[in-house]
Amino acid sequence: MVTVDTRAMWLVLEALGPMSAKQMTATGEHLMGLIQALCPGARIETARIDESTTSRVL
Q: Given Cys at both, which of 19, 31, 36, 40 links 15, Cβ 3.0 to 4.6 Å?
C-alpha cells in the first residue's frame, strides 16, 4: 500500500506476447509521466530485463 509515508516502491511492468518492445517502452514512459505529475519530486530509475540481460543457472 502506498501512503503519505511511502519513500520507496517498485513497479514492475511485464509485456505479454502481443506487446512489442516499442509499446512497452511507451507504456513505461507514460507511467513515469503520471508519477512525476502526481509526485513532482520523485526520483525515477528504470531498468529493462529481457533475454539478453539475464542468464540461466543450470
A: 19
CB atoms within 10 A of CB 22: 8
pTM: 0.72
Joined together, the cell numbers standing for residue 15 give: 509485456
Specify the DSSP element, H or E, that contains 32. helix 21-38
CA distance 37 to 40: 6
Alpha carbon of 8 to those of 2, 21, 28, 30, 54: distances in Å? 9, 26, 18, 19, 25
Rounded Cα–Cα distance for residues 35 and 26 (Å): 14
